[in-house]
Amino acid sequence: MNTANNSNSFLKSGLRRVLSSRLAETLTTPHGVDRYLELFNPTWSVHEVRAEVVAVKHGTADSVTLTLRPNGNWQGFRAGQFLRLTVEINGVRRMRCYSPANSVHAADGLIELTAKAHATGFVSKHLKQGLQPGTVVTLSQADGVFALPDQRPDRVLLISGGSGITPVMSMLRTLLDEKHQGRITFLHYCNTALDMIYASELALIAAQHANVELIRCYAQPEQGGELQGFFSREQLRAAVPDYAEATAFLCGPPAMMAAVEKVWAEDGLGDRLHLERFTAAPLVIDGGSAEGEVRFARSERLAVNSGATLLDQAEAAGLRPESGCRMGICKACTCRKTHGVVRDARTGELSEAGEQDIQICVSVPVGTVTLDI
């Protein structure tokens, strides 16, 4: 019996309206409806997108590809967008952003996510080593403006580096499913041939589709790619001489992306370059000017304001609030500030003094601040 499919049909029935009602929430307080539903099936939820891991593969030595079956709350995505994946590790919920790599037209309704397990990547290492088929994870709905436009460009240039291959892989697969006839160049950068995710599939695609050109650039020599070294204007002109005529989509390491952006900006082509990145402005924290206290109302704890971010101060006080990227992107750490002023560590902007939702990973208290934690 396919329990995930049963969960979809179950939650599409008239019971959804009943379970979503205020009466149902009242009757199941303090745990909520979902706590009882998951006793029958862990993917069942009235509102949350939950997904069962149905396959785990390792395309390279340091990567993992997860195939997920989402419940009926999943609303789909546009090729290139990302979602927020939440897993529980040692009793703490951790959230990270990943881009689906599958085509938006996948008939099986599954989601494919690929992550590189970096040496310091706490969550990515868990995905590679700790997840097994049958594990249930939580997803957000798809988000982000980095996506194929509804009017598909005639000339497409996909540029990726490392694990940044996933959103542009989704774009390529989607265009192929749509039998796109325009020219597509797939330009990918990585250290060695063994590091290239989806290497075999991309080679097969290029061999079977005359309109798809695959250009592999390896940083280390004698790897057999079409190019060697790092991105440069000269390299681009030689490999993709008509790049100025293409609509380009870019995702990869910050240094590579900055080099690509510089060329497009210098050529006045900024409006033809679309990019995705999960990096944020550096945090500016001045602990020397700290005053007041940080009050964690729900936990009934109090700490002297150290001048660090509220997330760091909460953890120092022995609390374990949910967090993800720790740089203000994923919004996993959002909580309610009930009193006080905070400064955004990225921009220096001060908040209002009243109640509001804030991201505690990038918020530094100015004086005394009270949080609903």
TrEMBL record:
The keyword Oxidoreductase applies. Pfam families: FAD_binding_6 (PF00970), Fer2 (PF00111), NAD_binding_1 (PF00175). In the N-terminal section; belongs to the FAD-binding oxidoreductase type 6 family. It comes from Solimonas fluminis. Its cofactor is FAD. This is FAD-binding FR-type domain-containing protein. The lineage of its organism: Bacteria, Pseudomonadati, Pseudomonadota, Gammaproteobacteria, Nevskiales. One of its GO terms (molecular function) is 2 iron, 2 sulfur cluster binding. Residues 46-149 form the FAD-binding FR-type domain. Keywords: 2Fe-2S, FAD, Flavoprotein, Iron, Iron-sulfur, Metal-binding, Oxidoreductase. Transmembrane segments: none annotated. The keyword Metal-binding applies.
